[in-house]
Amino acid sequence: MAVRFKRGKLGIGLAFLVLIFIPLGIGLFFEQDIVIPVKGATSRDWNPRSFWHPDWGASGVHKGIDIFASRGTDVLAAVSGLVVFQGELNLGGKALAILDPKWRLHYYAHLDSAAVSAGKWVSQGNVVGKVGNTGNARGRPPHLHYSIISLIPRFGRYSDREEGWKLMFFLNPADYLS
Hints:
By secondary structure, this protein is α+β, with helices and mostly antiparallel strands. Helix content is 12%, strand content 29%.
């Protein structure tokens, strides 16, 4: 049975939903493995209790984990996805963000350099940059700040902790990597 749409704004809108959002939403229903985004790193290279640690300077609470490695160590795509941002930020320094099929952003900050640009598709495990200490990590040991941000709010994660409403969007990477 063929799906027919009436002409006009409603028909065009319905066609847009069917042809764009439904296929993009399919990724929500599948499991996804996430690899540690620093080559050679293990769970001993980050402190799992650092996620949502209060008093983390200008950023308030710490909304990710810091994976420590030597400057220049390869940073890997933790997932396959579309690079939606690559540039420089005040706090994050050289940074990039990858959108995965589950509508989550994987944010990589304090890079020494980026190896990809916005608009490019990357496969899991591809080199996307090098570990550094740019942005507000200047003067600190080189590391990758890694965050996972859900674009779909998870209302059950709301908390009365400091900045707790943001917990609906920020996921603890240590839960996915260990």
